[in-house]
Amino acid sequence: xxxxxxxxxxxxxxxxxxxxxxxxLAWFPNGALAIDRSGRxxxxxxxxxxxxxxxxxxxxxxHGCYILPGFVDTHMHFPQVFCAGAYGGGQLLEWLNNxxxxxxxxxxxxxxxxxxxxxxxxxxxxSGTTMGLIFGSAFPHAQDFLFETARERGLRIVCGRGVExxxxxxxxQRTTEEEAVRLVRAEIEKWHPLTPEARKVxxxxxxxxxxxxxxxxxxxxxxxxxxxxxxxxxxxYFTSHLNENAxxxxxxxxxxxxxxxxxxxLDTYDGKFLPGSQVGGKSFLxxxxxxxxxxxxxxxxxxxxxxxxxxxAHCPVSQLFLGSGTMPWRRTVAAGxxxxxxxxxxxxxxxxxxxxxxxxxxxxxxxxxxVGMDSYPSDDQSISLHPAExxxxxxxxxxxxxxxxxxxxxxxxxxxxxxxxxxxxxCNTYAMTLKHMxxxxxxxxxxxxxxxxxxxxxxESVVSGTYVRGRKLKTSKG
Length: 478
Ligand SMILES: [Zn+2]
Known about the structure:
The two termini are 25 Å apart. The longest helix is centred in the first third of the chain and has 17 residues, at 110-126. Strand 8 (204-210), helix 6 (218-231) and strand 9 (237-242) form a beta-alpha-beta unit. The mean pLDDT is 95. By secondary structure, this protein is an alpha/beta fold. The protein folds into two domains: 3-69 and 410-472, Urease, subunit C, domain 1 (Roll); 71-401, Alpha-Beta Barrel (TIM Barrel), CATH 3.20.20. The chain has helices at residues 92-105, 110-126, 140-153, 177-191, 196-201, 218-231, 252-260, 299-308, 316-321, 329-335, 353-365, 387-394, 396-401, 428-436, 443-456; strands spanning 3-12, 25-35, 41-46, 58-69, 71-77, 129-136, 156-163, 204-210, 237-242, 289-293, 311-314, 338-341, 419-422, 463-468, 471-472. It is 34% helix and 21% strand. It binds zinc ion (ZN).
């Protein structure tokens, strides 16, 4: 049995780099997305051009709605589910100490953790996020609730318990070195698909997640590196933060370099975490490694990320909220590193990927713009991102960052059908703007302008359906 979803379709076809996303933009205003019983795409194109073999299929008509690939969020913090909009009375450190660390500790209570897991999965479904790379809780019972709930609902997640072997005395999340490794191994054994057959169909995967280099010791990095090496051929992921906060001396980057006595922050994740960037263990870099932020990487660090096939989770909303600056778009793209989008929820106060892409556009069109007119730079770093580049960053780039581009991320035939249906009638401003906006007589410009408005003006309320592998997901409320 084939099911055809009719609607206004946009996606990035093929496997382009971000710079070629505009040429790869596929647009079918009267589109058809046909899906077989196993949830795979058998046709995506104009309704009128559908093959005769699809006659007799079940048709679901999303009249007036947009159909986009499911959003992929490559950086989120599960234990911060109730932390967005938290006020710490100062900068990053005050925010962490006064709000975030104590909030994350609340998941020690199993009932609270169950509520958090339920709410987390509801939010992913309500916001069309079909895959999330998630910093997990330090508490195994909270991780079990999250994995169980994601499995029940049919959501894709990659998640791992946050490892901290250095933390304030009062932290409930800190463990010993031995305990940290034991708990990560147990999580992999329990929740990661360890055989090739299981990996082909799995929706939930495990990552190794040191919170960041300052929350662990060289000994922890060495032990986790050994563990990663043991499991990396079985598809285990790695993720952490990199080059987020550049405040002199007290900021994350200077502090990391001072504590580890390394030349570059990235060295600590690249096995070179001993003084003088000497090799002390195995590298975490590779095609299933995602580094959040990268707002202040050196050219050498970017080159190393690119050559190793690692990806960046770009988190513009969070970078604005925490005053971290922004990832330099042009320089990072030029280095050849894959850039996917991340909410960094709750450092970011926005869960809905189109709104994070909205912030991405604004961050980069304003990038490097000086305050005074006299100092307008000759090497202007600002860029007006094409709507196809935004769509790419929120969908296909995420699938690529997670080394699952062969499974989802766009509507190429043979892929698993992850998609989101957005219904303009659920938001008056959205509906009226998309209906009455100026339509440029040049078709391509009209197409691009429409996609731009579809992304920039979307709000979570317009999501009317979130599908993974062709199946509509249900929240706890049905
Ligand atoms: Zn983060």
